[in-house]
Amino acid sequence: MRQRRNEREVAPPPGHRRLNGRKARMRAAERRQHLIAAALRLFATRGFSGTTTKVIARAAGISEAVIFRHFKGKEDLYAAILREKASKEGYSQTMDELRRYAEHDDDEGFVFHLALRTLESFDRDTNFHRLMLYARLEGHDLARASMRVLGLPFFEFLRGYVVRRQQAGKFRKGDSFLLAFAIVALPVHFATASRLFGLKQLRGSNRSVARAFTQTILHGLRA
Questions:
Q1: What is the model's pLDDT at position 162?
Q2: How confident is the model at residue 110 (pLDDT cuts 50, 70, 90)?
Q3: Contact yes or no for 70/35 (Cβ under 8 A)
Q4: C-alpha–C-alpha distance, residues 146 and 136, integer Å
Q5: In angstroms, rounded to a whole number, what is the distance separating the alpha carbons of residues 32 and 66?
Q6: Please, are residues 161 and 218 in contact by the beta-carbon 8 Å criterion?
Q7: Following DSSP, what letter does each residue of 110-138 receive, concatenated?
Q8: Phi/psi at 18 (nearest 5 deg)?
Q9: From CA 209, how far away is CA 203, in angstroms rounded?
């Protein structure tokens, strides 16, 4: 009953255009972006447990059926949301940057910029990272979409880099999965503890923290 009441209480954003009836119709691409924007706004203000596709439809001023004309299902919608967020965050540029360091076998530059970009991402949108943490804890579909769309491709790239450096004799022998996880775990855990959990004693500029992490990580990785 509470969920139904919450669904009725969500009002369309001011100035929105209805997507049905006699009002001006949006083009398909514009309508898709409108839905993504509405979903992001709801996740940021209401969290995940109260944000159903029906709630998203109500906020966008459409019927729920219209959502599934543009997206194959909930996971497809969530994947589109994540791609939109990644585009705004400069995910592709960061990946290109890391690939350049990897191609030049610049281990220090690679690890430093991975750590730095991780910290900067948590600073730019702490609330989104907090919401993603909740999504994982709640087992929300968005968490699974995040792993499929962003997490696994990035981790496979990182693991491939570790394997190549192992084959070159630069990184120690061992499970490449664990070594790759070690690279990303330190900056992510630090950012989670300091930005999301508010541990004030964890101080330092992003660059100084990234430099310290780089030395620690490479000390453990190098053969």
A1: 98
A2: very high
A3: yes
A4: 10
A5: 10
A6: no
A7: HHHHHHHHHHHHHHHTHHHHHHHHHHHHH
A8: -65, 145
A9: 8
What is the rounded CA–CA span in Å between residue 155 and residue 180? 7
Mean pLDDT of the chain: 85
The arrangement of secondary structure in 88-221, i.e. its CATH architecture, is Orthogonal Bundle (1.10)
Q: Quote the CA–CA distance of 182 and 159 in Å, as a whole number.
A: 11
Sorted by where each begins, the domain ranges of the chain are 2-70, 88-221
Class of domain 2-70: mainly alpha
Instruction: From 122, 112, 108, select the one nearest 194 (Cα to Cα).
Output: 122
pTM of the model: 0.77
- Cβ distance 39 to 48 under 8 Å? no
Q: Side chain identity at 24, as an amino acid letter?
A: A
Select from 134, 119, 89 the least CA-distant residue to 202. Answer: 119
* Pair of tokens at residue 57: 């439809």
Render 67-93 in DSSP notation, one character per residue: HHHHSSSHHHHHHHHHHHHHHHHTHHH
Tens digit of each residue's pLDDT (9 = 90 or more) over 29-81: 888 888 888 888 888 778 777 788 889 899 888 899 988 888 888 788 888 88
Cβ neighbours around 70 below 10 Å, total? 17
